[in-house]
Amino acid sequence: MLRMAAIAGRTRRPDSGGVYGSLGGRVSPEIHELAWAGAAAKGVSISLYLEQLVEADPLTKRPPAGPAPRRARVPKGDEVMLSGRVKPEVRAAAKKGARARQVPIWRYLEILVEADRAASTYVEQEPLEQLDLDLISA
Known about the structure:
By secondary structure, the protein is mostly helical. It has one domain (21-124). Helices cover 43% and strands 10% of the residues. It has a two-stranded antiparallel ribbon with strand order 1-2. It is globular. The N and C termini lie far apart (44 Å). The relative contact order is 0.22. The model has no long low-confidence stretch (mean pLDDT 75). Residues 1-22, 59-78 are annotated as: Disordered.
C-alpha cells in the first residue's frame, strides 16, 4: 500500500515503527505561520519540521540545567496550538533543550522557529490561473 504525505508535495517521514508522541504548545499566530512557512519551504510535514529543528539544536546534546521552568506569560487568548507527532527521543530532546534554555516548551518552540531562516524567507507561490477552455475552443 502506498503511503502519502498529509499535504500534497510534502515529504513523508521515514517509518520508525509507528511510535510517536505529541510535541507542541500554544504559540502566537505569527510563530504558527512562520512554522508552517518553514515546513513548506523545506517541503516537509509540520511534524518532521519540528523534529528537524529540535535535532539541530546544540543544547539538546547537553545534560539538562535545573528544573523545568513554569509558564512565564499570561495567555492573551489569541495563541494557536502548534503541534506535531514526533519520535519519543525527539520529544525528550525538546524537553532537554527547553530546560537548558530555561524556558517552557512553548517558548522553546518559538525560539527554534524564529531562528529558522527558511521560515522567514519562504514566499508562498501564487496559484496558477486556470485556463478558460471556452475561449480556446472558439
